[in-house]
């Protein structure tokens, strides 16, 4: 059943099936070998030479981990949607001094805006959401990171790529990013419950000097156990089985081919929406490759539309939070193929014609 929602997404049958493998003790050589292999291969997803933490958690946990491990004085969070807003809340509720660079929802963040904010005050961390799932905006992380480094060379750049990684280009090391994290249930097309985070040596060294990092999300503790091919607490073993199979599938397709498939599907979706007289919520030049937010120009009842689609085994997402009803979202991530989108467009046309 194609779910055109921005996570949890469809899981391929063989990936779902992998979860039924018998359990292993996590401190066993068999499990450690599997964990090691997954961690090594996952680095290629992040384009990093450093390390990837695989944790029984979701992406939000690593929003918190960045705050706990890297901030002593102050953090700057870029907010142009609901998930940037959440990150600022995570920082504040951890008692950290938090400044927000607010950009209108639907607009992309300009590197100059970030550089300007960083020039005015000293920050430990710059936090940016790569792909704002709430608005369908992809922020230009590469250019933002370059501009930030120019004015604040020591800053730690943390990127939430929960709905980007695996579906749109991201180069952790080449772009000079310190922490990048994602959730399993988005472009990686796994069930929810596993969080993956690339962490640079620099970020790890910094964490060693930061007091009160807590326990579960402490980078230093996670690294100590990663070096023994495990995690401090019990790993999500069935999800690691699924990741093992899914990494093979992703690299069989080829990561760059996967990015290209997502790009093509985003283009198809935008062209269809515009042709049908809808508008696109995200500003041109900053439109997401993995989820398209369509302005509900025709005033469709999204719940009714979804009921119609469900009879045809499909589902789209309503607008997020304040955008509910005013927009709807068509996600084209993970296992979705161009022909699935064609089928969705025909079904939506049938609904609109009825
Ligand atoms: C950009 C972004 N960040 C963070 C999250 C939170 O992810 P999780 O629910 O896996 O913690 C989401 C979820 O949709 C997201 O889209």
The number of domains is: 2
CATH class of the largest domain: Alpha Beta
| Widest β-sheet, arrangement of strands | 2-10-9-8-5-3-4
What small ligands are held by the chains? pyridoxal-5'-phosphate
Radius of gyration computed on alpha carbons: 20 Å
Largest sheet: 7 strands, mixed
Count, helices: 12
Please estimate the helix content.
40-55%
How far apart are the termini?
23 Å
Query: Quick one: overall form?
Result: globular
**Which stretches are low in confidence, meaning pLDDT under 50 for 5 or more residues running?**
none
Notes on the protein architecture:
The protein is of the alpha/beta class. It folds into two domains: 239 residues, Type I PLP-dependent aspartate aminotransferase-like (Major domain) (Aspartate Aminotransferase, domain 2); 99 residues, Aspartate Aminotransferase, domain 1. The chain contains twelve helices and 14 strands. A seven-stranded mixed sheet has the order 2-10-9-8-5-3-4, with helices on both faces. Strands 1-13-14-12-11 form a five-stranded mixed sheet, with helices on one face. A two-stranded antiparallel ribbon has the order 6-7. β6 and β7 form a beta hairpin. α2 crosses α9, α5 packs parallel to α6 and α9 crosses α10. The longest helix has 21 residues. It starts with a strand and ends with a helix. The chain binds pyridoxal-5'-phosphate.
Question: What is the fold's blueprint, element by element?
Answer:
Layout: E1 3-4, H1 13-18, H2 29-46, E2 51-56, H3 59-70, E3 74-79, H4 82-93, E4 97-102, H5 111-120, E5 125-129, E6 131-132, E7 137-138, H6 141-151, E8 156-160, E9 179-183, E10 194-199, H7 201-207, H8 219-226, H9 237-253, H10 255-275, E11 279-280, E12 291-295, H11 302-310, E13 315-318, E14 327-331, H12 338-353
Parallel strand pairs: 1-13, 3-4, 3-5, 5-8, 8-9
Antiparallel strand pairs: 2-10, 6-7, 9-10, 11-12, 12-14, 13-14
Helix pairs in contact: 2-9, 5-6, 9-10
